[in-house]
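Data availability (excerpt). The following record was deposited with the supplementary files.
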Amino acid sequence: MKQQGLVMVFALLVLMSITILGVASVSSGLMQNKMAVSMEKRSLAFDAAEAAIGGVVFESESETLLSNPAILDPLSEARQLPAIDLAAQNLNCLDNVNWTNRTVTTAGLDDLNQNTAAGNYDDNPAMTSWSRTAFVRERACLGSSNVIGGSNISCHVFMVKGCGQLAGSGYIVANTLNASVFAPAGQQ
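Predicted structure:
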């Protein structure tokens, strides 16, 4: 009789161990799934942020847009605003007032207009893509002083922040590009 009781206790211990291992495996699987979904969302939002930076480059190089005096590209528009003070300010994805703002939507980039229309970058899943552009400073062009030394040309330095966010997401993914453009010195 004592052996039957011992076998039953041993069987219950084995069953409890298997149950604990099963619960731990399910819990680990759920956590890994949440991490994979989060990484996918961040990757999609990063792609939207990169598209926003690409949109600024597209507008700044568009011959159609640049030949229209009634429309400013993002860099020219940012150059007309006060320079950003990097010690006191930051180029924030949520600041709609102080910077030159552009969006990229499912309609794509329009070569005839400033890309400021509201809309989603993608609808499946719903995602937004926008940029902020600020003029940083004017300085002597580095590495090119032999070519343009003594001329009236300087480098105008800009900061472009691309931002992307999935609908319902609590975070925004951003990336920053610094760009230098040759321009006449002191041009406003």
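Summary of structural features: The chain has a mean pLDDT of 86.
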